[in-house]
TrEMBL record:
InterPro entries: SspB, SspB-like_sf. It holds the Pfam family SspB. Gene3D superfamilies: SspB-like (2.30.30.220). Signal peptide: none annotated. This is Stringent starvation protein B. Residues 125-149 have a biased composition (Acidic residues). SUPFAM superfamilies: SspB-like. It comes from Thalassobaculum litoreum DSM 18839. Residues 116-163 are annotated as: Disordered.
Length: 163
């Protein structure tokens, strides 16, 4: 019973989401230097996600966005971030809570994180689905697949509570 009090697995998830928040803050303040770029995968139907309806229709479960050359109005709050991206030459604002994230990668330095989600916000203890992330808009799937194998994904399963 005592080991239920701490839930280290949830603490680790929260801390690692803080890494993403800090990386985004640096990008908002200073831009992305060199070849740095971010792949951010999130649940499109998660609470607090605000994206255009046609994107939810196209990506009903999960979507990956890329922050590299063309992004605007990147704002980071404690629990979410917002950014404007171009889809078919139309700028669209997106708001994504950090709790909705399922993956983050910066392939330029071979860094990646994978997060777990369930409907009730708890971290699952079962096997992972496809660890490579979700679909990307505007035909970026191939680029995401090319970079996916170059970085190391940190899996949190070793820290999770086993039932």
């Amino acid at each position: 019973m005592a080991d239920d009090l701490f839930r280290y697995d949830l603490m680790v998830e929260t801390a690692l989401r803080g890494v993403v928040r800090d990386a985004l803050r640096r990008a908002a303040e200073r831009g992305l230097p060199g070849n740095h770029h971010f792949y951010i995968t999130f649940k499109t139907s998660a609470p607090g996600v605000h994206i255009p309806a046609y994107l939810v229709e196209r990506y009903p479960d999960e979507m990956t966005i890329v922050l590299q050359f063309q992004f605007w109005d990147l704002e980071i709050l404690e629990d979410q971030f917002s950014v404007t991206l171009s889809f078919n030459d139309i700028r669209e604002p997106l708001t994504i809570p950090f709790e909705a994230l399922t993956g983050f990668a910066d392939p330029s330095v071979q860094f990646g994180l994978q997060f777990q989600q369930t409907a009730d916000g708890e971290t699952p203890t079962g096997d992972d689905d496809d660890p490579s992330g979700g679909d990307t808009p505007d035909g970026e799937d191939e680029a995401a697949d090319d970079d996916a194998g170059t970085g190391e994904v940190v899996s949190l399963d070793q820290f999770r509570k086993k039932k």
